[in-house]
Amino acid sequence: MSDDSTLHLDDPTTDPNEVAAQAATAIADGTGTPRHDIALVLGSGWAGAADLIGETVGTVENTDVPGFGAVAVAGHRGTISSVAIGDSDVRALVFGTRTHFYEGRGVRAVVHGVRTAAAAGCRAVVFTNGCGGVRTDWDPGTPVLIRDHLNLTGTSPIEGANFVDLTDLYSPRLRGLAREVDPSLDEGVYAQFRGPHYETPAEVAMARTMGADLIGMSTALEAIAARQAGMEVLAVSLVTNLAAGISAQPLSHEEVTEAGKAASGRCSQLLARIVERI
Ligand code: 8IG
User: Fold this and answer.
1) 21, 181, 204, 276: which is deepest, by most CB within 10 A?
2) Which ligand 1 atom is at minimum distance from the Cα of 256?
């Protein structure tokens, strides 16, 4: 996708919302669905969820949509799907992967999916991710609602003097709804590190002291952009490993993928039942 009419996100004179509008048009054309209502971003361990939440009525490849890149993480899908929820007219826009800050494509690329979802009409977004747990009572495979975050990336997706309020960023209404679906769901504070290296044990101890319960490499920057765009935000982390130094075991991406697979059924069902109610 590169002709003269294609805007480039990394050009500072480009308005990222214009690229998002182009992307939304490409998605509407490619999926045959003019508007979407709810966006879903599938992180590590959540890949199967799209198939459970409803009937997929159209799919586009990320590489055919302005501003999106190819998949950078094993176990993610490089597609965007339009999914019909139950018998209703509600349509979910499901992102099979996300751009991470550690890919070095800049923060605009990280939040491009969120801005595209807003341009496509979505009024709510559900973020999922795989993360490290700081609390020993959360075994690998435990889904946890994000109640608040620590943005440790040192950056923001917002450009210019736009002072966006982040009180109640993670919607109490949507968290309440998630807990109606599964009253055993715990909540925690998510710290976003840049990655892609995992933390040192000292960094995990620091994050814990600062109030983190969950540690990962996504979601906080995207949630900020979602709030700026006026969307309601829900985020669910799957604890796939104990953060470095919390257990004696070293971390591996394989462990993360395995925990994701093992928890996949429960997580997909949970997500499907939540999305139905939003
Ligand atoms: I999955 O322990 C997953 N993603 N930063 N730390 C960070 N990201 C993660 C971790 C983790 N596990």
Assistant:
1) 204
2) 1
Ligand 1 in contact with 96 (CB < 6 A)?
Answer: no
Q: Is the pLDDT of residue 1 over 70?
A: no
Residue 3 has pLDDT above 70, yes or no: no
Distance (angstroms) between ligand 1 centre and the Cα of 130 equals 7
Q: Cα of 62 to ligand 1 centre, how many Å?
A: 24
Which of 119, 266, 152 has its CA nearest to residue 219?
Answer: 152
Share above pLDDT 90 across residues of the chain, in percent, rounded to a whole number = 72
75 and 264 Cβ atoms separated by less than 8 Å: no
Q: Cα separation of 83 and 68, whole Å?
A: 20
List the beta strands (DSSP E) in 178-250: 186-192, 214-216, 232-242
The pLDDT score that the predictor gives to residue 2 is 45
- pLDDT attached to residue 5: 62
DSSP letter, residue 260: H
| pTM summary value | 0.94
Ligand 1, atom 3, lies closest to the CA of 131
Distance (Å) from CA 232 to ligand 1 centroid = 25
Q: Identify the CATH homologous superfamily for domain 4-277.
A: Nucleoside phosphorylase domain (3.40.50.1580)
Q: Which residues of 62-88 are buried (b: 16+ CB within 10 A; e: fewer)?
A: beebbbbbebebebbbbbbbbbbbeee
Two tokens, residue 144: 């946890």
Measure the CA–CA gap between 89 and 27, rounded to whole angstroms.
18
